[in-house]
Amino acid sequence: MRDAHWGRVVTYSRKVFIPLTTYCRDDCGYCVFVKRPGEPGAKVMTPDEVLAVAEQGRALGCKEALFSLGEKPERRYAEARDALARLGFRSMTDYLAAVCELVLSETGLVPHVNAGTMEAGEIERLKSVSGSMGLMLESVSKRLCEPGGPHHACPDKVPLQRLRTIERAGRAAVPFTTGLLIGIGETWRERLETIEAIGDLHRRFGHIQEVIVQNFRAKPGIAMANHPEPDHDEMRRTLAVARLMLAPEISLQAPPNLSPRYLDYLDCGLNDWGGISPLTADHINPECAWPHLDRLASEMAARGFRLQERLTVYPRYIADPARYLVPVIADRLSGLARDDGLALQQMQ
Ligand code: SF4
Fold first, then answer.
1. What is the mean pLDDT of residues 170-194?
2. 112 phi, psi to nearest 5 deg
3. Cβ 26 under 6 angstroms from ligand 1
4. Ligand 1: which residue has its CA nearest to atom 7?
5. Residue-range domain boundaries for the chain
6. pLDDT beyond 80 at 281
């Protein structure tokens, strides 16, 4: 199915990661990104800091600015409210929209927004300043929200809330990324139900441009530090089943930096490696370096695949700007895209 739809081309997006705030109102058991007030690294980036990262990325050929941030921290922490007030904002979404606009106008990078659960108005607002958005569904298992589960006391991890956000993005015709986090306590049945739920949303709205299958990694300092990690076979089987269950036009992605045997994913239907940054660390998994692009390209060539750069918006959505993109974003993307919709300057 992968070969029939995507051929032997596997893509990646050259991007910088902008962790706009490390505050978050949730407390997921596997998260190393989140910082509580007073902890080292707890902060809201200033516009100057955001622009400095984006500009360095642009100089290194990046075309995407991936904004990742904690969920609605201003509803939980006075420190987050104060930081926003100093910047002249009352909500993280308002601030995010402003810095997306700044990055777009000052650097030309196209924002991709991972802002958590969102209302319809927030999605419309962010669509005007970004090319695409994302929210990992992670799992439809409600059990994981029970006491002792990784999503206990995480209001934004209630599956219904996440499904609603993805549905709202569908109604707003936003090219959307979602996915599964595997190995956090879900059963195989729940994993399959998660894939099925994503497939259903895509059948209704057609907006799911990619699905990520991400493996849980145990790290010191998290609540799940001693939780077993999913093994290599589980990743391979989940990828293969996702490829078979989902519509073939949905890009299937797994991060190459979370397993030393990532090349095996090529045999399981994968056609995309996601974001690879020449500049910024993976803030979600800071201990895991990305493979060097030249090395990745030659490893893939040895298996009969070509590595090509794509933009944050996949070709299918770039080709339908009236439905999926606001004019300023469509113009920007058409300046960055080849005739086939992939990125103009590609890795060779
Ligand atoms: S995984 Fe996301 S929602 Fe959960 S604590 Fe970390 S930043 Fe917040």
1. 98
2. -120, 130
3. yes
4. 70
5. 2-283+291-336
6. no
